[in-house]
Each structure stands twice: as structure tokens, then as C-alpha cells.
Design goal:
24% of the residues lie in helices and 25% in strands. It is of the alpha+beta class. The chain has a seven-stranded mixed β-sheet with strand order 3-5-1-12-9-10-11, with helices on both faces. The longest helix is centred in the last third of the chain and has 22 residues, at 500-521. The two termini are 42 Å apart. The protein binds dioxothiomolybdenum(VI) ion.
Length: 691
């Protein structure tokens, strides 16, 4: 029942993008614009004693050097990483201690190099250890999930289980590294602030700037018209928008600030390193009786961020006795933050590798083991799932992949000096939706325009919103224009949590239906002056839904391991997902495959090394931080189950932005074990770990 549907409409802004006509935040140059270049701290902890800007101000074209002594004062921020240049404290290496502003980019950069900062350094601690005395269990992990949960009696059930798996998995930190670095062009017109910012949600940036600068949000306009990726790192406002706004106010001219790639690792968030201990107790047939998932991670001293990696174990499998915990330590390191499928990507790596170890320990086929532990109700909440087609994904994936031909014995397939192996893992991602508003207008000629502050971070938001509107209005898509990407449009939530299309689309759908009614009241023809309808979904979204809601999927990988070099190549990757109705097969497939490619990076090449002596990450560019390129990807396929779920939203969709990465790394790691017989419980699977 997997869909091989027509491809779906092409991106409405595709031509603009490929011809270079689409402009990104740093490509706007207001008359008289100046350029800024930030200065990162070179110590891991301490104080700024003095900033000597004398030599910097001698640069031709120099306009200003902002420091904590002269920068505009900021008021409030929920996120303390935005309180830049407000005091002399250095909480981690890379924290901004000054900003150079000049008539040209080159001059700003030269100024930044000439600024002399004197520090009083203090001892720092940048080492995550599972016995660190500073570890504590927070009340909540990210997303408001309980930090710790217990059901039944794990210890007793685990002790009496016929088969036990106890394994600890370690992941390096990971960086989002969107193709377009974080950038802002800011200008003040009197007491009004206008910013082009590369963000995943301009309404969020506008509200945050209003709080920081103590202004009414009506006086702030934030535009995020085209965004070259974010993967979570642009889901919250970042220092560049605050610095650019401060510099523009201080100098009186518009200021452009594009963060240099080499500085990103310290200031725009990352997935933190995570250590996960999994214990599975099962019957001889593989039915899980006891499950413990214990997460140890780190955050900074600036902001508490706790990757909610144990949460998938509260959703995935039958587990009458369960313990899921997070503990965190505040180190003198850069602040972690959201990165694609936070919690699920990391947590499912560990859980799904442990499931593979349980399959080996019981002799149950890995697909069958997961089917056997499927559950109709969410184990932790006890709620029934609104829809759950994990088993169908596993079965359909197994059929398409040719799983039944597999010899389960490790090291059973060789091709010359290569070992060949296959692996499977499940995927999941929660269904999120947030209130949104939207406006739809029809003019006298029967042309429709949709206005909503959605953001297209490369997903195809404009296109799918035009589809949703056209369907709700029962008109051809070419009669619908969509305007998104500005806080001057009806307020909307960010492109994050795989919730964008559901959230914005719901409001667009509702406004279109209201407009349809208005047109009906006019006898089916809009009057010459047109008609407008607005909608807000605040009252439509249940605060305590009776169902647990999640997308599910199954990932299959075939790897080839070079026995001379330890190099792993992914020859085949196949995912089958159940994510409600897929609204646009073309852009949807692209998102799922994009997630899976990011999962290949997580498994094999990506990893940020925290140098404990310096308290900062060693990889500063895309030459050192290896994201997969086309040549790293062999056959890759994404399919889906046509899932009908009446409990979601008027479109019947779940999110697809993040589930593609979930489970990929485990499927690859499990395939590497199958190929080699060696269980490496540490990502990334660099060649030296396999030799
Ligand atoms: Mo995603 S990490 O919610 O942008």
C-alpha cells in the first residue's frame, strides 16, 4: 500500500532560487550599509579586563568597536545566549567579547583582528564524565518532558528477565551547519527596527527583539524571506540579529552581519555529546519486560539545555517496567541547542542499537523483534495512538529491501576485501502543532492571496501552503499566491519540531473555508473590491489530546566495510515512513531523503570534538566537519504508507522534517555489526574504530 504517487507540484520559488534572484538575509544592502565582524573570546572561562580598540579604529573605514562597556543595554531574554556584550564575563571560548563595525567587510575583519582583549582567565571544566560530581537530574528535559520517569519496578523485572542486554552508547556532539550561515541586515528608522534575518521563524525573532530592546513588537519588522537551512540552529534567535541591531543603533547606519563559518560552532548551538546506557530485559522470545534508558549529557553555564534522548523509550515498545532518566552537567562550554530531531535522533540511535543486540542475544530476527514489541497504546502515557503503522513500515521496508534473503550470521557476506552487512532500525517523531493565524483574500478577478508568517527553510513551505489553500478553496493552484517570511504578516509559529505545515496549513485552511463562506454569501462571485477572511487556530488545538500522536518509520541499510582501511560505505538506504497524509510527494520525498543523508553523516562522518584544554570544538569549517556529499550516498529510497488519521488537522498530515534522520544511524551501525561482527558503540564510526 506504499504510495508511488505523482511527484507533486514543483517549488513555486524554484526558478528564483536557481537563478539567484531569491535574496537571503545578507544579500540585502541598504544604502550606506556598514559591515560587522565579531570577536570571539580566546579563553574558556574568566573576565574581560580591557579591550583596546585603538589600533582597530585606525583602520580606514572604521566606524565603531562595541564592547560590554559601550554596547546598548539589553533588557530581557528567556535565552541568555542572546545577552551579548552586557558584562565582562566569559562563560566559554568563542563567546563574543567585541564587535567591529566598518564601511567595508574587509575593514571590519581587519579591525576585529586588531582589537586587543586582555582577559583574567580562570580554570575551566570542559570534560563530560558519567561520574562528574556536577551531574544532576533536571525536573524537565527539553520540550517540557519529565527529566526522570519510572513505571513498575525496573530493577526487579530486569533481574528476573531471561535475556538481558546492558550497553552504553556514546555520541560526539554534532553541529547543524546550514549552508547559509546565520546572518542579519538591520536598520533603524527613527524608533523602528527593520531586520532581514536568517531564521526559522520571524515572529519569534520579532517578539524576542521586542523583549531585548524593551520595544513594542509593532515597531519591529523581521523578514526571513528565503533561508538556506537551519536544522534547528535558527529555530531560536541567534546573537547575529542582536549584534546587528545594536551596531545599527550605535552607529546610526544599517549594519550587515554574516557570522563567519569558523565562529558558528560556539555560538549557534549544536547537538550536545550524549552518553546513553540501555538495559533491556526480555523473555526468551524477545518480548521486553524491563527497559532502562539513562542519558548523561552536558550543557553550558549560560543556558540549561537537556537533550531529551530518553523520551523515545517512553513511546516505542512494550515495556511494563521502565526507567527513563536524564542527567546533565553545566560545563564551561558553548551552549547546546536544537538540532534536527533533538531527542529522537540521539535516543533512537541507542535504543535501536540495543534492540539489535537483543535480537542477537535472543536469536529473533531484528524486524520480527520490533513487530513483537509493538504496542497500541503509548507505554508511558497509557493513551492509544491516533495512528501507528510501525509494523506496516517494517514489513513494507523488509519486502522492498529484500530483508528475507539475509543470513543473520555476522561476517557471512564478503566481496573481496570487503565485508557486507545489513541492518534495520525503527524511527519515530512526535506530532507537534502550534497555534497560527492566517489571512486569505480574493480580488474581484478571482485571484487568491494567502498571507501567513511561515518560513521556508528549504522545505517548500510556499508550495505546500498554496496546495492547501487551493484544495480548501477548490480552485486551481495557479490562482493562489502565497506571501510568507515577514513578521508584518499574520503571526505564525516557527518552522521547527516538524510542525510548520500542520500549524500554518491549519490556519490557512480555516481562513480559506471562511473566505469560501463569504464568497457564498455574495452569491458565489467576489465583489469588485474583493473579500478578506482571517483565521486563528488557538481554540482549535487541544491542550490535552486524548491520543498519543507520533509518526513512525523503518530504516534499512546495507554497508560495505573495507577490511584494509576500516572505511564504511553505505551502499543502500531505504526508509518507509507513516506520517499521515504526504501533501506533496516531491518536496516530501526530498525532506525524508535529506534527513536520511544527515543520518549517514551522524553515523559515519560528522562529529564535533571538544578540546578540553581550550574548551571549544576543534572542527571550525566544512573541511574538518564532514557532512556527506552526493558521492557518499549510494542507492537511497524513501517510501511511505498512505496513513489516514482523523485526529490530526484538516489536512490529515503529520510532520516529515525530522523523522528521516531518526533511526538511520542505528540502521547503519547495526549493518556494520552484521558485516564485521564487531559492535562499536560510539559515533561516528570512523575507520580507526573498526580496525
Ligand atoms: Mo527542528 S531541531 O525542531 O528545527
Amino acid at each position: 500500500m506504499s504510495t508511488t504517487s505523482t511527484p507533486g507540484p514543483v517549488r513555486v520559488e524554484g526558478r528564483e532560487k536557481v537563478t539567484g534572484a531569491a535574496r537571503y538575509a545578507a544579500e540585502h544592502t541598504p544604502p550606506g550599509a556598514a559591515y560587522a565582524w565579531p570577536v570571539p573570546a580566546t579563553i574558556a572561562r574568566g573576565r574581560v579586563v580591557a579591550v583596546d580598540a585603538g589600533r582597530a579604529m585606525d583602520e580606514p573605514g572604521a566606524l565603531a568597536v562595541l564592547t560590554h562597556e559601550n554596547a546598548p543595554r539589553l533588557k530581557e531574554a528567556d535565552d541568555a545566549t542572546l545577552l551579548v556584550l552586557q558584562n565582562d564575563r566569559v562563560p566559554h571560548r568563542g563567546w563574543y567579547v567585541a564587535l567591529a563595525v566598518a564601511r567595508s567587510l574587509e575593514a571590519a575583519r581587519a579591525m576585529a583582528a586588531a582589537i586587543e582583549v586582555t582577559y583574567a582567565a580562570e580554570d575551566h571544566d570542559a570534560v563530560l564524565a558519567t561520574d562528574h560530581p556536577g551531574l544532576y537530574t533536571p525536573d524537565e528535559a527539553n520540550g517540557g518532558f519529565p527529566g526522570s520517569r519510572e513505571r513498575g519496578d525496573f530493577d526487579a523485572a530486569y533481574a528476573r528477565a531471561a535475556v538481558r542486554v546492558d550497553a552504553t552508547y556514546t555520541m560526539a556532539g554534532l553541529h547543524n551547519h546550514p549552508m547559509e550561515p546565520h546572518a542579519t541586515t538591520a536598520r533603524w528608522e527613527g524608533d523602528r527596527l527593520h531586520a532581514h534575518d536568517s531564521s526559522q521563524g520571524a515572529t519569534t525573532v520579532q517578539k524576542t527583539l521586542a523583549a531585548l530592546f524593551g520595544m513594542d513588537s509593532e515597531r519591529i519588522t523581521v523578514v526571513s524571506e528565503h533561508v538556506g537551512g537551519g536544522f534547528g540552529s535558527k529555530g531560536t534567535p541567534r546573537p547575529q540579529v542582536v549584534l546587528a541591531a545594536m551596531a545599527a543603533r550605535h552607529t546610526g547606519v544599517p549594519v550587515k552581519l554574516a557570522l563567519p563559518r569558523a565562529q558558528l560552532a560556539a555560538v549557534v548551538g549544536h547537538r550536545p555529546p550524549v552518553v546513553q546506557r540501555l538495559r533491556l530485559g526480555a523473555d526468551a522470545d524477545g518480548t521486553i519486560s524491563a527497559l532502562a534508558h539513562e542519558v548523561t549529557t552536558q550543557t553550558s553555564t549560560v543556558r540549561q539545555f537537556v537533550e531529551q534522548a530518553a523520551t523515545p523509550s517512553r513511546t516505542m515498545y512494550v515495556s511494563p517496567h521502565s526507567r527513563t532518566t536524564h542527567q546533565v552537567v553545566e560545563l564551561d562550554v558553548p551552549s547546546p541547542s536544537w538540532m534536527r530531531a533533538p531527542g529522537e535522533a540521539s535516543g533512537m540511535y541507542a535504543l535501536e542499537c540495543a534492540m539489535d543486540e537483543l535480537a542477537c542475544a535472543t536469536g529473533v530476527d531484528p524486524v520480527e523483534l520490533r513487530v513483537r514489541n509493538d504496542t497500541a497504546t503509548e507505554p508511558d502515557s497509557g493513551k492509544p495512538f491516533s495512528s501507528r503503522h510501525l509494523v506496516e513500515c517494517l514489513r513494507e521496508g523488509a519486502r522492498r529491501f529484500g530483508w528475507h534473503e539475509r543470513d543473520p550470521r555476522p561476517r557471512s557476506r564478503t566481496e573481496g576485501r570487503h565485508l557486507i552487512g545489513t541492518g534495520v532500525a525503527s524511527s519515530c517523531y512526535p506530532v507537534y502543532v502550534a497555534p497560527s493565524s492566517a489571512q486569505v483574500r480574493v480580488d474581484g478577478d478571482g485571484r487568491f492571496s494567502v498571507r501567513v508568517n511561515a518560513t521556508d527553510i528549504g522545505t517548500g513551505a510556499r508550495t505546500v501552503l498554496a496546495q492547501i489553500a487551493a484544495e480548501a478553496l477548490a480552485v486551481p493552484m495557479d490562482r493562489v499566491a502565497v506571501e510568507i517570511g515577514s513578521s508584518s504578516l499574520p503571526a505564525a509559529p516557527l518552522a521547527g519540531g516538524s510542525s510548520g505545515t500542520a500549524s500554518w496549513g491549519w490556519a490557512v485552511h480555516k481562513a480559506c473555508r471562511a473566505l469560501g463562506d463569504l464568497i457564498g454569501e455574495h452569491g458565489g462571485t467576489p465583489p469588485p473590491g474583493g473579500l478578506t477572511a482571517t483565521a486563528d487556530t488557538s481554540d482549535d488545538i487541544e491542550s490535552e489530546p486524548p491520543h498519543a500522536k507520533s509518526s513512525f518509520g523503518a530504516q534499512f541499510a546495507e554497508v560495505r566495510v573495507d577490511t584494509d582501511t576500516g572505511e564504511v560505505r553505505v551502499r543502500r538506504l531505504l526508509g518507509v515512513f507513516a506520517a499521515g497524509r504526504i501533501l506533496n510527494a516531491r518536496t516530501g520525498r526530498s525532506q525524508l531523503i535529506g534527513g536520511m543523508v544527515m543520518g549517514v553523516g551522524m553515523a559515519l562522518t560528522e562529529g564535533s570534538t571538544l578540546d578540553s584544554r581550550f574548551g571549544d570544538f576543534a572542527e571550525r569549517d566544512l573541511a574538518a566537519y564532514h557532512v556527506p556529499a552526493c558521492a557518499d550516498i549510494g542507492d537511497i529510497e524513501a517510501h511511505w504508507i498512505d496513513e489516514q488519521d482523523p485526529h490530526l488537522n484538516p489536512m490529515g498530515s503529520k510532520g516529515i522534517g525530522e523523522i528521516g534522520i531518526v533511526g538511520t544511524a542505528a540502521a547503519i551501525a547495526n549493518a556494520v555489526h552484521h558485516a564485521t561482527g564487531v559492535r562499536v558503540r560510539e559515533l561516528p564510526l570512523h575507520p580507526e574504530k573498526l580496525l
